[in-house]
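FORM 7B - TANDEM STRUCTURE REPORT

SECTION 1: FIRST PROTEIN
SEQUENCE AND TOKENS:
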Amino acid sequence: MEVSEIQAELRAEGLDGWLLFDHHMRDPIAYRVLGLDTGGHVSRRWYYWIPASGEPAKLVHAIEDARLDSLPGSKLIYSSWQSHHEHLGTILAGKARVAMQFSPLCMIPVVSLVDAGTVDLVRSFGADVVSSAALVQYFEARWTAVQRDSHFEAGRRVDAILQQAFQQIRVDIDMAEASSEYRIAQFILRRFRESGMVTADSPIVAVNANSGNPHYGPDPERSRPIRNGDFVLIDLWAKLDAPGAVYYDITWTGFCGERPSEHMQRVFEIVTGARDRALRAADAAMREGRGIQGWEIDKAARDHIAAHGYSDAFVHRLGHSIGEEVHGNGANMDNLEMRDERPLIPNTCFSIEPGIYLPEFGIRSEIDCFVQAGGAVATGAVQAEIVRI
């Protein structure tokens, strides 16, 4: 953590300061931003105040008074609730705009981590509590050069494994229809391990109607076989097995045969058209130096799908921030589930994954988009046609 860098951003945002708070490890963002050790026992509330100018301040409980000793600033110690309120009031005296991990109307849930009672307490000292969402994006979601390189390397490996998975389906089918959703998911996980990658969850391998369920995941009990004539969706995500590595996350679709139906082909073209429109919108905004917000990228894709009559079949946001966790804390491309008004900023990455989900099949086409000062680029292979398996 560089206090001076945070303070410069606070001044740019017109904020009096950023109040970071935790109780029982509820706010992992605070620990990452401050570079705090997450080990040990945290049974009492602590606060770390970073003012726009001047020295930071710490407020800790008497029995855990060393919790913030690794951070710069003065320290106040409380024991009773009265001294807790008194010292917090001293820290916030005269402060008008205080950023916290809070989102009005819980519009951005991943940042809305401070409980309502603590927000009430801070407001009782005359402060207006504002969202730290933009600060979180700036200090959490931007990648270092090493992280960027780890993403592109993960992309090369995952792209190759995806193609191997499609090939394995063909091999299995040719060997007496032995393929299944679960079998291919396990094949992908095995190849991740063999390729030096890790993932938090199993990939999605979904056949026919199951591909119409955006979060379907096969297990041994409900896994369906994969046969000639079947439509297959594969969604897979992984990162290098190295400290600080970031995820690569994509979705492709295939058909077990020579020619998918005209309906499948038409829906695929609509979905990929929405994907490409969103990427162009992000790239143009960054190249032209004009601000564009997450919800606007979502709208660019969603309007395309709606114009073709499938608005009700696109049931999730367009994309999510990507970082050390597959769902990161930067701007989401979302004007459906939430309205994310954070602007795209350089050195961040997000998924673009429009989808149309129908009773008989679903099509999603997902790429990752890396934002730079002079543009935005897809970070791996971009699917141009349904894979003929």
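SECTION 2: SECOND PROTEIN
SEQUENCE AND TOKENS:
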Amino acid sequence: MIKLLLIEDEAPVREMLKFALADEDYAILEAADASEGFSILRDQRPDLILLDWMLPGMSGVDFARRLRRDAANRGIPIILLTARAEEDDKVQGLGNADDYVTKPFSTRELKARIEAVLRRAVPESEGMLQLGSLLLDPVAHAVSVDGSPVAMGPTEFRLLHFFMSHPERVYSREQLLDNVWGQNVYVEERTVDVHIRRLRKALSPHGYDHNVQTVRAVGYRFSARTET
């Protein structure tokens, strides 16, 4: 049984989503705002969070940011549900969550997004990845250098995990979208560049930004050798 936490302030929307997902193997926990969501998380750990952007008190994006700072819950995948469809909103949303679904959406699309996010969630059986003093722990969903934590968003974490799992190989933007975002997620290739910049910014104070390399006219690679 897959456990979903639905955080949505509109009761009719919650009821609609519960009905739409009733025929699936899901157990749905409900919260009307961020405070109630955090209260549920103190007692239960869902497999995925469906999170409305426009919540009273604390927005969904702020909730996601706070969750990513919580060591116990930062690895829980998040899908943002929102009527905000501008490209900048999508970039901001994907910088803080694992996927972004624009209202109105079909239940078929939502189910596909849930399945895609759960498929690409980092398996807890995977071991740590290391390059020099840069260490990525997929179980704790944490990155550190010389024992000091490196703060980054969930998308940057998945990018780094993919890169460190496939060093020295060049990937096009389209390939990165398929492998990191998932084949059922429809975002612009430009989004890859945005998150590459954010990943480099997170690694820069520790000297590992140069390992994320641009291969002109092709894409990106993660190399143990710095560029000259």
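SECTION 3: OBSERVATIONS ON SECOND PROTEIN
The CA atoms of residues 81 and 105 lie 9 Å apart.
The two ends are 51 Å apart (CA to CA).

SECTION 4: SIGNATURE
Preparer initials: ____
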